[in-house]
Amino acid sequence: MDKNFSLLIEALLPEGILYYFEIADACQSETEISIYLEEKNIVPAEHQHKKLHAKDFLPPVAVQDFPIRRKKVTLYVKRRRWEVVATGETVTRDWEIVKKGTRMTLEFGYFLKGLLR
Question: Which of 19, 85, 95, 115 would you call most buried, defined as having the most Cβ atoms within 10 angstroms of its Cβ?
């Protein structure tokens, strides 16, 4: 992706979101911009000692973001699930653990807190 384009996208989305999510799609109407995000296949730190494979995604969650150019912005966020190969157990990223880490801004923490409700 072009560096200038990346800077623009990062400025429009909640800070830090592109570390954990990638843009899968985007569209707009006269009144709304919809951005579809999918969690990247980055194994959660709390499960790195296990052999996992990406399974699928949880149902998307719609999150209202700040308007852009007088258009409502909705982020459709799909969180990833992984399967533990040895047991078949399904795991997801524990966002409370991530929130305590150093790679998340306060704004991104509030964003994720809204997802967990």
Answer: 95
